[in-house]
Amino acid sequence: MIFVIDEDLPRSTAKILRANGFEVYDIRDHGLRGQADEAILSFATQKKAILITGDIGFGNQLKYPVGSHGGIVVAHFPNELSTSELNAQILGALSVLSEDDLKMSLTILEPGKIRSRKN
């Protein structure tokens, strides 16, 4: 699977996903820091990747309808959660979700929960 990591997630998230066999692009490495959400999603689409973000705005289905993008994963975790626990939660969710589960869908990850909307 191919992922684009948004700037609101730790840099270590990309490293851990790569170490587990995923192809990962961090937007900070591609001149997209501070860019509009539309530019971030466009980059993910160009890379045929699933966007992983902490930005709950990407969960707005009126603005980003399910099926209109390659897939969005919103990691919605408390700010108090350590970086290592955040990365473990994301990696754990990805271990039980297939590419088919994530493609063209909206997936919300929360502590102990995975919610998904597919077209």
Brief description of this entry?
The protein is α/β, with parallel strands linked by helices and 119 residues long. It has helices at 11-19, 37-46, 83-96, 99-102, and strands at 2-5, 23-26, 50-53, 72-75, 105-110, 113-118.
* Biggest pleated-sheet summary: 6 strands, mixed
Query: Helical amount among residues, as a percent range?
Result: 25-40%
Give the number of helices: 4
> What is the rounded distance between the termini?
20 Å
**Unreliable runs, pLDDT <50, ≥5 residues?**
none
What is the alpha-carbon Rg in Å? 13 Å
Number of domains: 1
The structural class is alpha/beta
Could you give the order of strands across the largest sheet?
Answer: 2-1-3-4-5-6
Mass-distribution shape = globular
What's the overall average pLDDT, rounded? 96
Return the string of H and E elements: EHEHEEHHEE
Strand content: 15-25%
Number of DSSP strands? 6
List keywords for this structure.
alpha/beta; 6-stranded mixed sheet; single chain
